[in-house]
Amino acid sequence: MLPIREMLAKTGLTEQQWRVLRVLSEFGPQDATELSERACLLLPSLTRMVRSMAEKGLITREQDQSDRRRQMLAITDAGQRIIDDNYEQGLRVVEGFKARLGEDKYEQLLDLLELFSDPPERKS
């Protein structure tokens, strides 16, 4: 979406990377599977993104102590600073969406988007 891309232009982040930081900021450390579902990203895409974001110092990867196969991902201070520095502008973007759609349609849009973050039900 153009307003978000414009907001992120100075950060060098993509919309997908922004979502990763937002999810980690809001929900705290989590494994890649949880993060991919909450950020609405395919796991292979997230895996590539995580490597790049870790190299930039925006997130950390640590092996889960209870399950060595899992990596726990967390936002760093540098990643949180990007979230904090763009908070006010992010609010203005949301207010712009609400102004265009109206409160009811905006809430309906969020509800519909939430459907994408729920794992699909498997049919037997």
From TrEMBL:
InterPro entries: HTH_MarR-typ, MarR/SlyA-like, Tscrpt_reg_MarR-type_CS, WH-like_DNA-bd_sf, WH_DNA-bd_sf. Residues 1-118 form the HTH marR-type domain. It comes from the Bacteria. The keyword Transcription regulation applies. Keywords: DNA-binding, Transcription, Transcription regulation. GO terms for biological process: response to stress. One of its GO terms (molecular function) is DNA-binding transcription factor activity. This is Transcriptional regulator HosA. It comes from Flavimaricola marinus.
